[in-house]
Amino acid sequence: MRDRLKRTDGHTLVFPSILSADFASLGEESAGVLQSGADGLHLDVMDGHFVPNLTMGPDVCRCLRARFADACLDVHLMVSYPEQFFEPFAQAGADHLTFHLEVMNSDKAAALADDVRQLGVTAGLAVNPMTPIEPVLSIADQFEMILVMSVQPGFSGQAFRPEVLEKARRLREQGYRGWIQMDGGVGPKNAAQVRGAGVDVLVAASAIFGLPPDNRPGAISGLRSSGE
Ligand code: DX5
Ligand code: ZN
């Protein structure tokens, strides 16, 4: 198992989503945030079917891996047929693959988590804002990470939906000890609240790449520690 997604007690991970990077300078944009204290890169994969947008495929992951041998590459599969992409992304150097519960039932999700781990990468399960957390509670322990979406997936720059914080609290209350990731509209105004709900992996696109490069180190450390 690749182990770049390391648990360090009390350390909140910050993963910039490269969806808001300047794609014409993706290498420089990625190098910049990694040197600025990011714990890895979040790759938003969209298929134009599960979500109304198209983004990146395994070749982008492969190029990032070739350039950043040690970076944690966290792949978020917003696609209708995620199993089609497990092997291509694992071979392209992904460390972690998250897929969505909305395209399957809980039994299948748990079985696919094993398929992902067989490829030597960790597995995550994502739920959209409108999807209840109850079906996740019984299978959460099969996943190294649960991703609680805080916007309807598809585009960066949307407003954070605070009502989803309750899902993270429920996961922690029932004893879930894996990573809880939150993705969508996360920024300096809500990061303390998000961490307070038990979230320990923050994804942010526009709150990091929307700033000039010189301001990105402060934005990353601010997400990790604001309000402390
Ligand atoms: C949502 C994606 C997110 C998104 C975050 O469809 O999964 O990763 O790009 O963008 P911001 O942080 O700008 O809401
Ligand atoms: Zn994402």
The first-level CATH class name: Alpha Beta
Helix-strand makeup class: alpha/beta
Roughly what percent helix? 25-40%
Give me the CATH architecture, please: Alpha-Beta Barrel
Helix-strand sequence: EHEHEHEHEHEHEHEHH
Summed over residues and divided by their number, the pLDDT gives a mean of 96
DSSP summary, beta strand count: 8
Task: Give the end-to-end Cα distance, rounded to a whole number of Å.
Answer: 34 Å
Q: Provide the list of bound ligands, each named once.
A: D-xylitol-5-phosphate, zinc ion
User: What would the principal axes of the Cα set say about the shape?
Assistant: globular
Topology-level CATH name: TIM Barrel
Number of folding domains? 1
How many separate helices?
9
* Strand content bin: 15-25%
Largest sheet: 8 strands, parallel
The stretches of 5 or more residues where confidence is low (pLDDT under 50) are none
Give the neighbour order of strands across the main sheet. 1-8-7-6-5-4-3-2
| Rg (CA only) | 16 Å
Under CATH, the homologous superfamily reads Aldolase class I
